[in-house]
Amino acid sequence: MSEAEASVPAEPQRFAPAQPVERTAQLEPKHLAEPAEQLQPRHLAEPAKTVERSAAEVRSLHRSVESQDVWLDPAAGKRLREMLDEQLSRVEAWMKRSEDLARQAPLGRNPVGTAMAEKFAGRAGSTDEHSFAGVLQRYREVLEDARGAVDDAMRTYRQVDEQAADSFRKLI
Length: 172
Prior knowledge:
Elements: H1 3-7, H2 29-32, H3 36-39, H4 42-66, H5 74-101, H6 111-125, H7 132-171
């Protein structure tokens, strides 16, 4: 038997049809007493966690700059700063567009439509850390902190460069 024949299965595999998935869940009174963040869908927490990881990295960068472990050539820093400014402009535009998402959608004048409209508006426009607007606001703060770290790193580079130049002049 050749390699080609050995790699082809003798019979096609048959798959059983998928079992129907029940899409409703029972909400028992004990669930109503849980904190609201536990009732949030998991996917809403992921962007907030990602932004917080970025914030931690920027804080680490600040510490490295303060201890003069990181210096940044002003030419490279200028390019990096331009990229951060461009991203900040994008975030500002996103935040302005997100205001439209925070308006209550006309889903009807019945209790379910009203509740759903309030829920969607809250997820989009509230200041909650998991809302769209809340995540964008925190992301903007992280970008501003990163821009500050870049500025500090460029300043550190200039200071170290000036100190080295002064030391060299003293030798001459």
